[in-house]
Amino acid sequence: MTTPLALLAALSAAALGGCGWSGQDDRQDTRPPAAPRGLTVEAGSATTAHVMWNQATDDTEVTGYEVYRDAKKVKEVPGGKHMVDITGLKPSTTYAFTVRARDAEGNVSPDSRRLSVTTPAATAADREPPSRPARLRGEAEGSRSAMLTWGKSSDNRGVASYEIYQGASKIHSVGGGQTATLVTGLRPGTDYTFTVKARDAADNFSPASPEVRLTTAAGKESGRKTAPTGFRAATHRADGAYYIDLTWTPPRTGGAVTEYQIQLDGRTATSLVFGGTAPRDKAEHSFYIGRKAGERHQVRIRPRLPDGTWGAYSPERTVTTG
Question: Which residues belong to the signal peptide in this entry (predicted)?
Fold first, then answer.
């Protein structure tokens, strides 16, 4: 009787040990996704806003996004989408938007950066749509982006925005005063068809512009056409301290570039955000670097493009204090 009892005890212990090991393998995911980056917000009309962001990262998978207006959740979007139109807004009103990512376990990311937009004034009993945008042109900018330009539409009350479509899908929205935009995130060696519609403050849409077809370049490239050009760096001394002085020409994006990321000695040093009117032809910035002479530094910058993605870095420049 001793041997069978001992064997039974051993088998029971092994079974319990196996259950314990299996439980460790099924640990619940408690790590939230990263906060969505690249948030952009554009007023589409007196009662709508177009919100876009970049895909968030997670250790498993992002399954959805939550869009907040003034801290109130107003929309849930599937994980495969990165834009949404928010409707039901009030004319001549300022709203602030943020976005959070959510994974399959319900873990929610921190808020994206917060952006505000003001809707245009309402137009009474306006049922007249804007005219059709004319002369749509497209030019591939390397293998992953394209520049679109079009003729200005007319409207009895004014154009509030232009909506850009890739095939039948809306991919971007720009303000009514802008008649060009850079489209990014394309694939190398691929054919694309784009159209543009004008939209007024009363949510009347124009007919679609004539189609423009283009093919992106084959193969890999660095995206250099989205980088600032003419980038220069120097130093100066003031009040016993040294500063790095930067000058550059913003990339051609169809609109103003309002934000840049500055990388110093291989690490992100700071973000530069232009308030008011951002420079279009020549930009400059100076920042504190220290008080020690003879120090050598490498510096470069990259722009945040109108669709919220980062453009390519400028060439790296080397400066020495003193």
Answer: 1-17
Q: What is the pTM of this model?
A: 0.69
Q: How far is CA 233 from the centre of its chain?
A: 27
The Cα–Cα gap between 186 and 193 comes to: 12
**What pLDDT, in 10s, does the model give residues 203-228?**
899 999 999 999 998 877 656 678 99
Q: Which among 30, 86, 21, 92 is positioned nearest to 58, based on CA atoms?
A: 30
72 pLDDT band (50/70/90 cuts)?
A: very high
Domain that holds residue 79: 40-118
CA distance 192 to 150: 17
**Do the domain assignments include residue 242?**
yes
Q: Can you give the pLDDT at residue 315?
A: 95
- The CATH number covering residue 87 comes to 2.60.40.10
- Strands 259-264 and 49-52 come out as unpaired
Looking at 215, 250, 285, the residue that finishes a domain is 215
**Quick one: CA dihedral 71, 45, 167, 211, positive or negative?**
negative
Q: In what order do the strands lie in the sheet with 72-78?
A: 72-78, 62-69, 94-103, 115-118
CB atoms within 10 A of CB 68: 18
pLDDT tens sequence across 101-145: 999 999 999 999 999 999 988 877 788 999 999 999 999 988 888
How many residues are present in the chain? Answer: 322
Burial code (b: 16+ CB inside 10 Å, e: under 16) for 209-244 equals: beebebebeeeebebebbbbeebebebeeeeeebbb
Q: Which tokens in the block code for residue 138?
A: 């497209």
Provide the 10 A C-beta neighbour count for residue 70.
Answer: 12
